[in-house]
Amino acid sequence: MKVVRVIPCLDVDKGRVVKGINFVDIRDAGDPVELAAAYDAQGADELVFLDITASHENRDTTVAMAAAVAEKVFIPFTIGGGVRSVDDARRLLRAGADKVSIMSAALARPDLITEIADEFGSQCCVVAIDARSSSETESGYEVFTHGGRRASGVDAVAWAVEAEQRGAGEILLTSMDRDGTKEGFELTLTKAVVERTNIPVVASGGVGTLDHLTAGALEAGADAVLAASIFHFGEHTVAEAKDHMTAAGLTVRPCP
Amino acid sequence: MTRPLVAVLDYGIGNLRSAQKALLRVGAEAHLTADSGLIADADAVVLPGVGAFGACMRALHDSGLGEQAISAAGSGRPFIGICVGMQLLYDASEESPGVDGLGVLPGEVELLPSHVKRPQMQWNRLQICRGDHPSMAGLEDPWLYFVHSYAAPVNENTVATVDYGGPVNAVVGVGNVWATQCHPEKSSQAGLSLLANWVQSIHEVSA
Hints:
By secondary structure, chain A is an alpha/beta fold. Chain A has helices at about 30-40, 60-70, 85-95, 105-110, 110-120, 155-165, 185-195, 210-220, 230, 240-245, and strands spanning about 5-15, 15, 45-50, 75-80, 100, 125-135, 140-145, 150-155, 170-175, 200-205, 225. Chain B contains six helices and 13 strands.
C-alpha cells in the first residue's frame, strides 16, 4: 500500500522561521518548535526545514534548532541548506534530524552522497534538485543552483538517476519554473524522475490549490507532496489537503 | 510512581536521540549510554538502530554493547528493539550476508518485495494480529512511520503487520522482548502511545 506523505516546508534563517506564518493560535510565528508542533497536531506526515542563509557561522544555530525541534516534536523532519560535509550531516543527525538534504555540495562533489549514505544509511540522505526547463539538456530539464539563478549544465533527470546510484534515499525535486507561481507542480518533470528512479520522490514547487497536491501524486506518481504557502497562510489545513487527496482516490494517513 | 531507568544503547550511529526524547516524554528516565554499569542497573533497555545491518552489528561489537544487548534481552527486563535495532535481534540479514545478528529472535531478515519501492518510507496502517499484546493497548487503528528496505519474517511472534507488497512484520513480542520495525519515536501520538505501553510494562515487571 502506497501512502502519500504531505510535507509542509518551512524556511529558516538563523534558527527562526521566516516568510511569516499565519496560524490563528500561534504565539510566536518564528518559533520552529511551536510551528512544528502545530503541523504535527494538524496531521503533517513530515516536515522540511530549509536553511536559507546557511552561512558557515550559522551552522551552530541550525544544529541547536534541530535539537530543539527533536525535543518536542515526534514526526520525521529533514534539514536542508548548507550541508556541505559528512561532519555537517553528522551534527544535524546527532541533534535529532532524521534526514539531511544536500544540493550544491553534492553537485560539486557527488562522492558526498555516497559518504553520507555509507556513514548514516541511505534513508537519511536526501538529494535536493532544483530544476528548470532547458534546451541544453537531453531530458529538457537542467539543474540550477543558487536559488534557481545559476545553470549547472547538468541534466536534472540524469542527475536524479545518478544520485540514486550513489546512495541517495530520496529525491526532493523542486521546479524553479513553478516555485512561487501557485500554478501547480511541474508534472512532466516530476513524472520523468519518478519513472527513472526507484527511490521516493518528493514533488515541490508551485502548489497553489489542493488539486495541485493531488495531481502531483496521482498524475506524476510522487511519493510525497511538499508545499509552503498554502499551509502557512492558513489557506488550507493539512486535514483539508488530506481529505481532498482521499476523495481523489489516494491513500494518506488520516489526520488526528 | 517513580520514573523507570531506561538505557538507550548508544553505539555511535545516526540519530539515536529521538528514541531517548520520546521515552522522556512518556515518563521514563531515559539515558543515551554506552556505560555498562548503567545498562546493568537499568530497569529496561532500548536497542535503536539506523543504517545498514552489517554496519550496525560492527558498531555494536566495536562498542562492546553486543553482549550487553544479548544479556539484557535474556535477563527478563523489558527490552525493545527499534527499526534496525529490531532486525539486529535476529540471526542474520539478507542485507549483510555472513554477518551474524544477535540471535535473540530466530530467523533471517529479508529484503522487501521487488515490486514495491525500497525503502518503504512512509506512514502505514497497522494490521493487528495479536490484539491482546500489551504493546497494542489503547491503540485505535494506529498508523506509524516506517523507513526500511528489509524486514523480519512474519510468524507467531508477530503482533502487527503492515501491507507493503504483502504483509510486512511491523511489531513483534516474545516475552520481555518487544521490537518494532516502525519508528514509534517518530510516529506522533500513536507512536508515543506504543512507547507509553512499553514503559507501563516496565512498571508491571518492577511492581
